[in-house]
Write a structure and sequence with these properties.
two-stranded antiparallel ribbon; 268 residues; disordered N terminus; single chain; six-stranded mixed beta sheet; 10 helices; Rossmann fold
């Protein structure tokens, strides 16, 4: 018979989830690889789905061809999943764990699950997995609009408007999240070692021994793309973005219930 102490110990040994989200083409795949290479962490690999995204490997939260569409999902009210969603149930949690388990190595402290739609599902996922943490990735709206332009007939100014609306929704969700780190793609590519160290500190892991994947800044290929309007630039400035793919210093966002973790991320 299991004792109460044994049950508590088993709970402490269960892996925790780091959910990574962001608009398509924002650098979520790169960031997930940086996180998954940390000692004690691991991601989904070798899955027969786009970019090893966990959203395709589960049946607990419906995901059809009409859901999660690039430059559409993040402002769709039906895809903003919060604590009040009907899927906030024990059955949903157990089904997610059961469906994802075969795709992760055994013995991990952190399971890294990356899907762009996590951007609008943070609050539901936190309710399902109270010890989970979140990493949101931003990228300059002009670069995002240029990189997804071949996937949609929408004009680029509309795509930038979507970026702004999506991140306004993110602003509204952030106060509800107990542990969330927001990183910019541009800062990650400028100093991947520091980005890796900040992620490690956020997860209370050691960055030593992590790999060193070559990282390049993909924004250069979009030089000369359509610039933001003055109104769009004013909104994007909240995240340190300016017209012409320019980035200003930005203080970032990190929240965690433990002061020691906050301080470690800030020092990294």
């Amino acid at each position: 018979m299991r004792t109460e102490d044994a049950d508590r110990g088993a709970g402490r040994d269960r892996p925790r989830y780091l959910f990574i989200g962001g608009l398509h083409r924002s650098g979520t795949s790169l960031t997930a690889r940086l996180a998954a290479e940390l000692p004690g962490a691991g991601g989904i690999t070798g899955a027969p789905v786009p970019e090893n995204e966990g959203v395709y490997l589960q049946g607990a939260i419906p995901h059809t061809a009409l859901l999660g569409r690039p430059m559409q999902f993040a402002t769709d009210p039906a895809e903003h999943l919060t604590e009040a969603h009907p899927l906030n149930t024990l059955e949903t949690k157990l089904r997610l764990e059961r469906d994802w388990a075969p795709w992760f190595e055994d013995g991990l402290r952190w399971r890294v699950e990356k899907s762009p739609v996590n951007l609008t599902r943070t609050r539901l996922l936190q309710q399902l997995f109270p010890l989970s943490q979140f990493l949101i990735v931003l990228r300059h709206p002009e670069a995002v609009a240029a990189s997804v332009a071949g996937w949609t007939p929408r004009p680029r100014p509309d795509l930038i408007d979507h970026w702004i609306a999506a991140h306004e929704r993110l602003k509204a969700d952030l106060p509800y999240l107990h542990a969330c780190l927001v990183l910019r793609y541009e800062d990650i590519t400028a100093d991947p070692g520091r980005a890796r160290a900040r992620i490690a500190a956020f997860l209370s892991l050691d960055a030593d021994g992590a790999g060193g994947e070559p990282v390049t800044d993909g924004n250069a290929q979009y030089a000369g793309t359509d610039p933001m309007s003055p109104a769009q630039a004013s909104a994007a400035a909240d995240w340190g973005y300016a017209p012409g793919l320019r980035c200003a210093p930005w203080p970032g966002h990190v929240r965690h219930p433990l002061r020691a973790v906050l301080q470690a991320v800030e020092r990294a």
